[in-house]
Amino acid sequence: MKIISYNVNGIRAAMKKGFVAWLDKVDADVICLQEIKAMEEQVDTEALEAIGYKYNYWFSAQKKGYSGVAILSKIKPNNVVYGTGIETMDFEGRNLRADFDGVSVMSLYLPSGTNDARLAFKFKYMDEFLAYVNELKKEIPNLLICGDYNICHKPIDIHNPVSNKNSSGFLPEERAWLSDFIASGFVDSFRYLNPEPHNYTWWSYRANARNNNKGWRIDYHMVSNPLKENIKRSIILPEAKHSDHCPLLIELNI
Length: 254
Description:
This protein is α+β, with helices and mostly antiparallel strands. It has helices at residues 11-16, 19-26, 45-50, 87-90, 116-139, 172-183, 189-193; strands at 2-7, 30-34, 55-59, 69-73, 79-82, 95-100, 103-109, 143-148, 186-188, 202-203, 215-216, 219-224, 231-236, 248-252.
């Protein structure tokens, strides 16, 4: 089973940059999107269905043009769950889950901490989400939570850890939370297979950061421990340029 996660920074903008043609070539079974910034009725879903994604699910933020997640699939899910049931996070459209035989796939868009208020919201979200996942694992042990976590875990995951030590996304408290999340029963699938530095998934639009590969690895395929031995491949696809993020791909033997 081939699954892609991609923060598209606006699905309509990405589609104008060749996203659908690229998706057709990649030929993944399931696509998890974040930051779609659109309602379903604003998206050319016919173009997605034409390349095989007959099943597509959209969980938009209440605020138009903001946040939102989606799952596109060539395989019909057994069940789809919109949100977490936690009102304080669901109004921003940040969690969408599709259950398949052998694995449950979640598209996650964790908030960024752009200012003090949003950082406080992010920490609250993180705490509530971890508690939610700990309960969810009891019901569904085979989980893949993929998406934009808006956190670099370790110094190897950011181009300049020293100058960014006080930046949201690399704060000690955020990194500690991600360590706790992994310790609760998950594998960072990319790092599990690839110990090499200079692998990033997001670059600022400033200072030619992407061409100079001055980036952050903030997008993950987090695999629950029972599926660890099922990880066949986990890679980053920086050549895809429809967003300030790039997609990542995982293959699981299911």
